[in-house]
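ingest -> validate -> predict -> emit
validate: passed (alphabet ok, no gaps, 197 aa)
predict: started
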Amino acid sequence: MKRKQIIVLGLVLVIIAVGILQYTYGGSGESGTASGVSDLILSQGNDLEDIPGAAVYVDNSALDITDEALAQAQQPTGFFAEAKLERDKARSKQKEELKSIALGNDGAVEASATLTSAEAQEQLVAIIRRSETEVTIETLIKQRGFEDAMAYMSDTGNVDVIVKASSLSAQEVAQISDIVVRHANVPMENITVKNVN
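emit:
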């Protein structure tokens, strides 16, 4: 019983100390400003950069990074990253065209001569489903231990899968094909699996 009383008393003292500190440095129950806290820390001889989790302002003018250099640094590199980027760009363009047809915008007059609004909406939904299925297939293939993978589903029902590997065994091709059959609902003869090193 005495141990519990000591713990409760210790917690009460901590709460009182926190309240006093907040009142002293933060003013009448409000939290202190960032400058007030940093002034307090600096007055104690600590540098903000030495404190874990402390926010520190960084002046970017000293870094001399141009927008072009930043854009190049953010560009994906490698075959798979570039191929996925190109696929996503093409899909985005298709989606925008179909959205404008479905909404009946005047800019889509040429394409809308062959598609109705309902047909455009159906195609838009199909593109979104294909994109989601491709990402699912790629994720599941990577979970099988492959470094990277890319799946491309055409609107004709064919699926091409490219896997980053020096070679593929018959068992690995069967596992990849099984993933595609289950998630893309296509027959085995419509699946092509290739490897790229």
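Strands lie at 149-153, 159-164, 191-196.
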